[in-house]
Amino acid sequence: PQPPVALAERCPLMLWSFIAYFVAPLGIAVWALLLSGLRPLQSISKAVIGLTMSIGGATLTIPMFIALFSAVAWSWETYALFGGRAPRSLTEADLARRWREERNWWILNFNLLLWLTNWR
Asked: Which residues cross the membrane (predicted)?
């Protein structure tokens, strides 16, 4: 049996699963409905885009919040990926970590562009 995984180690995995399997597909659906050219579908998309949320004194629409969150996460992942680590001999674990960081970076690039487009 494998040892249990700590919650602190699972949180980033849950975040990436949430982005990859919910936030990005929602953005694609909203974007596709906006570009459909059919007024009923566009009105559904505009209703989703028009939803607001308040955090403290700031009121943001859903696309604004997701784009802002994606920009912060993109900055974090960019630093993790290109942060100036000294080159060394890479083990398989190092290569696997780097591959995950690159995958996350590309997911965030796509997600950020998608939600900025939806926000427009």
From this structure: 13-35, 47-74
What is the Cα–Cα distance from 69 to 67, expressed in whole angstroms? 5
The answer to whether the beta carbons of residues 42 and 33 sit under 8 Å apart is yes
| Both structure tokens of 31 | 């974007």
Split into its structural domains, the chain has a count of 1
One-letter identity of residue 13? L
- 1 assigned to some structural domain: no
Place of tokens 């960019």: 78
2, part of any domain? no
Tell me how far apart the alpha carbons of residues 18 and 16 are, in angstroms, rounded to a whole number. Answer: 5
Q: What angle do CA 48, 21, 10 make, to 5 degrees?
A: 120
The reported pLDDT for the residue numbered 14 is 79
pLDDT over 90, % of the chain: 50
Q: Is 118 exposed, middle or buried (0-12, 13-18, 19+ CB in 10 A)?
A: buried
